[in-house]
Hints:
The protein is of the alpha/beta class. The chain has twelve helices and eight strands. Helices cover about 50% and strands about 10% of the residues. The N and C termini lie far apart (about 55 Å). Belongs to the 1-acyl-sn-glycerol-3-phosphate acyltransferase family.
Amino acid sequence: MAVTLEQAQRVGYVCLKALLRFAFMVANNLVAIPSYVLYLIMLQPLRVLDSQSFWYIEGVLFKWLLAMVASWGWWAGYTVVEWGDDVNAVSEDEAMVLVNHQATGDVCTLMMCLQDKGTVVRQMMWLMDHIFKYTNFGIVSLIHGDFFIRQGRAHRDQQLVLLKEHLEKYYRSRNRKWIVLFPEGGFLRKRRETSQAFAKKNNLPFLKHVTLPRLGATQVILETLVAPQENGTPAGGDAVIKESKSKGLQWVIDATIAYPKGEPLDIQTWILGYRQPTVTHVHYRVFPVKDVPAEPEALTHWLYQRFIEKEDLLTHFYETGAFPPPQGQTKAISREMTLSNLWLVGVQSFAFLSGGMATSTWRETGLSLELLILQNYPA
């Protein structure tokens, strides 16, 4: 089949645009990440004198870094429409966010759509696969205090112990409020067949758009972060909550990500921008933590129900192009989330201006990054 001049020009334009975007992303990383690290090294005295202020500043820098990632998709026309409950109402409370996982673009989508949710982005903790630690953004997540979880049955028990220790040590001491996890334990395409076999063996529903979630991390988070008086009875008459200023985890946010035609965005598409402008849809349901059972068997059933509901939501979306209305209503209301281009340009400009300072300072001081990180931040 002959290629027309117009088709060749279109392909050439897409390739050129992808190359320029990739060059910009590389430059962005080369200036933004070292700047973030250097600022925090310079602020180490503040960490000793006033740790709360130190982690506030770190959170602001972290949010700006995530905004830069969001900008790559935003400027490529990859936008988000939100459905369901308005999570802005609980943005200042502690919450656990359960998300279905289809591709690497899921994380980028969340980085984008949570930007306008108050202080959420700068005060959130992510649970992610340990492989992410070895990416360019891994050092940022390491400093921020995210938890890298190693998948596989052989590591499961040990990882849950480490997660509990991590939460106890870093979650409240760094004033974290939202914790984000993907309970399916991997991408849909990798886990679907195994999940369906498990469902058939245990007489559970057959799911195509999600997989059955794993209980472990969810249970540890609830056990560690929910205040004793939540979920029923107090721990005892004289019990004192260690973190008296915190009300504990108050909400569970069930977030469902849907892509048109079920074709998820991956990180390569997000960076290179070769796909046509795409609207990703995110549906939220908010549950009070007091309504979430604590007993393992009941919690497993509750968690399965959330993903069965996700299956129904996604089935409806792929058939109609919209999520169904809430129970008792006749029409579902959607909300387009927006980002300020001026603000994104300002953040990018700050990163590039800081990059020059970071590069020169790094060369002059000869600081050992690896040693400083190992000494001051969690592994």
